[in-house]
Write a structure and sequence with these properties.
Helix content is 10%, strand content 52%. It has 324 residues and is mainly beta. It folds into three domains: 85 residues, Immunoglobulins (Immunoglobulin-like, Sandwich); 89 residues, Sandwich (Immunoglobulin-like); 115 residues, Immunoglobulin-like, CATH 2.60.40.
Length: 324
């Protein structure tokens, strides 16, 4: 009887211990604060809390006063405030903290208002067809930080880049299709809420180094640029390298990145401009996959221009030739 009583008590004690441990492990503590812009609360800002202990994510949104309130279990956290279209966090690094045995209150996250830049890309070269994405970035010797999503150039050459993260060293970078180098306009200092208009970027006179035309090998018709509003073909230019020779993984990745991309226009023609002398690989790619990719090696010499006729075949095995 005595042994049975001891056994029952031990079971009860063990159960209570396990229950207490479970309750303690699930105890949550309040984490609260506010997200502001110059003291004014910002509504609808999403905040994520990455629990590095349990590998779990919690999230909440700010209310109409910019306040947030969430209950989190014990653990180490990384707090990330989602950037909004109009606002960026003033301190770009994530916030780290640990929830132990008490609430954490009074956290304040300051956000800054984005900037906006509008302008126009012009050229005096009547033969140059401009189609490009305009980017804005902060350029350092060994790093490029993009400050906003790129803006596509309109038919009249105008552009507007919105929701730009303020920076004291902003640079407009454009690489028109068919170019292998960026066109740079530096010297911008973008403060919070700035709106700069009337920026003019001029593309200098260029030389068509590589010209080409895509046709269907069976029908003889030109292969067009657009299908259902989407670019259909693109021609990519790569630096040539001997695949038989050893190369470091980093250099291999760099070699596999195209130097430039050219559109195939409505008449089936494409162009590359100001290509430096050297040996290159030209690749024609159909984004819809109806035609197999076609690669060819081209050599550019000083003062030489290349004109190609490329016959694409849906079954593969397309051909190309240099025409005079």
């Amino acid at each position: 009887m005595k042994n049975n009583f001891i056994e029952k008590n031990m079971i009860i004690i063990l159960f209570l211990t396990l229950f207490s441990a479970m309750v303690y492990s699930e105890t949550k503590f309040r984490v609260s604060g506010k997200v502001v812009n110059h003291g004014k609360g910002l509504v609808g800002i999403r905040i994520r809390f990455f629990n590095k202990t349990k590998i779990k994510v919690y999230y909440t949104n700010t209310d109409e006063y910019g306040k947030f309130d969430i209950y989190l279990p014990k653990g180490r956290y990384k707090m990330v405030v989602n950037k909004q279209k109009k606002y960026f966090t003033k301190i770009h690094a994530p916030i780290y903290f640990e929830v132990k045995n008490r609430n954490i209150e009074g956290l304040t996250i300051e956000m800054i208002k984005s900037a906006r830049v509008c302008g126009k890309v012009i050229t005096k070269d009547k033969n140059l067809r401009i189609r490009t994405i305009v980017n804005i970035a902060r350029r350092e010797p060994k790093n490029i930080e993009y400050l906003a999503m790129g803006s596509e150039l309109k038919k009249d050459g105008s552009f507007c880049i919105e929701y730009i993260k303020p920076s004291d060293k902003a640079t407009i970078m454009i690489e028109p299709f068919g170019f292998t180098d960026w066109i740079i306009k530096e010297g911008f200092s973008l403060k919070e809420g700035d709106e700069i208009k009337g920026v003019v970027i001029e593309i200098p006179k260029v030389e068509r180094t590589i010209s080409g035309r895509l046709i269907d090998s069976e029908s003889g018709k030109s292969l067009i640029l657009i299908k259902d509003g989407v670019d259909k073909f693109v021609v990519l230019l790569y630096e040539w390298y001997d695949t038989r020779k050893p190369i470091t993984p980093l250099k291999k990745v760099i070699k596999l990145l195209p130097l430039g991309a050219a559109d195939v226009y409505e008449d089936g023609n494409f162009y590359f401009y100001n290509v430096k002398p050297g040996k290159y690989i030209l690749k024609v790619h159909d984004r819809y996959g109806n035609y197999k990719d076609l690669k060819m090696t081209v050599i550019i010499k000083n003062g030489k221009k290349i004109n190609l006729m490329i016959k694409m075949n849906k079954k593969g095995g397309g051909k190309w030739e240099e025409v005079r």
